[in-house]
Amino acid sequence: MKILLLEDDHTLAVTLKEVLESEGYNVDIANNAEEAYEKTYNYSYDLYIFDINLPDETGIEVLKNLRFANDTTPAIYITALTDLNTISNAFKAGAEDFIKKPFEPEELLIRLNAKINKAANNIIKINDVEYDISNKVIKKDGKIISLGYVLKDIFHELITNKNKIVPKEKLLDLTNAHSDATLRVNITKLKNKLGIEIKNIRGEGYTIEL
After folding, report:
1. Reported pTM
2. Over the stretch 97-151, which tens digit does the pLDDT of each residue have?
3. Do 2-121 and 124-207 fold alike per CATH?
4. Widest CA span of the chain, in angstroms?
């Protein structure tokens, strides 16, 4: 699992990196907001661990901007700031957890494992495509793929019923034109955009086999 740690305290950042990597995690460190944006642009992460007090932007502002860009990666804040306003803003920005400094590394590991397991249970993978069922986010090679509502609904129906035949009639209800020709066109678009195989079971419907 790959983690981005945003922390401007170099000593703490290195210590946490060593602890996490001793447990098998792959950790990248960003010392400021600019580095965090650059790394999230170039790489895909399974979890963010963000400090709030930073030299350029706050960790809250960073997460807000990432969420605005449709980045749904789970996030945990670590900070010495514990006033209610800060905590409220942290969760409003999209954080899922909050740890007060100072803390024991074991506490971070417990919460981290919980977040990773929760996220993993919501992910379906097929080749280089990942689908987050909870928020219907599709990624290919770690990059978010934008689909129209019809294509996304059809893909959701097929992938959540993987290895099963989804009746043609059910998929037709998701198209705007409700015609066989329109459904075939949409299926072809999905196959081309995502690079996946969608089988046509003649007279029955379509299926994605994993």
Report:
1. 0.59
2. 778 888 887 888 887 777 667 666 678 888 899 898 877 889 888 788 888 889 9
3. no
4. 64
Query: Residues 68-82: pLDDT tens digits?
Result: 888 888 888 888 777
CATH 3.40.50.2300 assigned to domain 2-121? The reply is yes
Domain ranges of the chain: 2-121, 124-207
| Cα–Cα dist 60/94, whole Å | 9
The one-character DSSP state at 161 is: T
Q: Is the dihedral of CA 168, 170, 171, 176 positive or negative?
A: positive
Write down the H helix ranges in 69-167: 84-92, 105-121, 149-159
In the sheet with 75-79, reading across from the earlier edge strand, the strands are 26-30, 2-6, 47-51, 75-79, 97-100
- Residue 52 near residue 59, CB atoms below 8 Å: yes
| Architecture per CATH, 124-207 | Orthogonal Bundle (1.10)
Residue 64, classified by CB atoms within 10 Å of its CB into exposed (0-12), middle (13-18) or buried (19+), is middle
